[in-house]
Model the fold of this input.
Amino acid sequence: MSQLITLKDKQFKPYISSQKINEAVKNIAKKINSELANDFPIFLVVLNGSFMFAADLLREVNIPCEISFIKLSSYSGTSSSGTVSELIGLSEDLDNRTVVIVEDIVDSGNTLDKIMDSLSKTKQIKVATALFKPEAYKKKHEINYVGLTIQNEFVIGYGLDYDGQGRNLKDIYILT
Done:
C-alpha cells in the first residue's frame, strides 16, 4: 500500500489492503454459495459505492442468481446527510424471491432502511456489505454477510469516495 494521498482538501492514510479485502470477499461468497445454493437469489447492488465489491463478490458466487442495480444517495462530503434520496429504482418483480442487498458500507443504516421499506412480498432479504461500522449502526436489520468490521471513521477507496474521488483505489484509506 502506498503512503498518504490527498483528495481535494483532505489527506488519507492506508487502512485496509486489497489482499485483506479480497480475503473478506471470498469468505462472504463462500457463505452465500453454501446458504443460498437452493434459492436462486437476486443480488440488488446499491450504486455507486458497491460496484467494486459487487463485481468481486459476484465473480466468486457460483450459484444460479440474478443481478440488478439501484442507486441511492445519502452522503455529502464526509458525513451522512441524514436523508436518503432514491435516484434509480428497482424494476424487477421480487415476489417470493430471496434478495441479497449488496452494500459497500453499512454505517448509520439509513440507506438500508430506505431499501428495506421499498421491498415487500420477498421470500427473504439478506444483506451483504464489504464494510460494517457497528458503532454507527442504529437500525434493527440484521447484517448477514460482513466483509470487514471497521471503526466509525471516514474511509475511501474500493468504491467509496470523497466528493466523487477515490472510488478507483484498490485499497481502503482512512481520513487522517
